[in-house]
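Chapter summary example.
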Amino acid sequence: MSSDLEKIVNFIKEHHVLSLATYGDPELSVCNLFYAFDEKEITFVVASSDDTTHIQNILQNPNIAGTIVLETNTIGKIQGLQFRGTFSLLEDKNLKKLYFKTFPYALAMSPILWKIKIEYFKMTDNNLGFGKKIIWTRSSL
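The structure predicted for these 141 residues follows.
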């Protein structure tokens, strides 16, 4: 794993909620989702009902964008991650196990699980210098 991707993965592991933006006809949607992350597949696993606006949008257009952010008022500690990818129904049993290992209480709810296959990350990390950006794309694997 490249050192840039390792920095991104370490940031992801420190958090558990992402913001997701979707677009479908006729509307935009933004929501927050709990996630598990698989660093081998560079994939988020999330749970969501298929009657939500964001899932209805995804069924029309699987291309998504999202963020994970550290909330801080200290300029030198600002960190945030933007990502783009494709969202689809999860079928991989190992990724399902990962989600339920991360959120064991979710088993009782029998949620529908989805995956977000990441194509692009852009991380801002002021710990590395003011305005420092790290870019990763799947094509760089």
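To summarize the output: The chain is about 20% helix and 45% strand.
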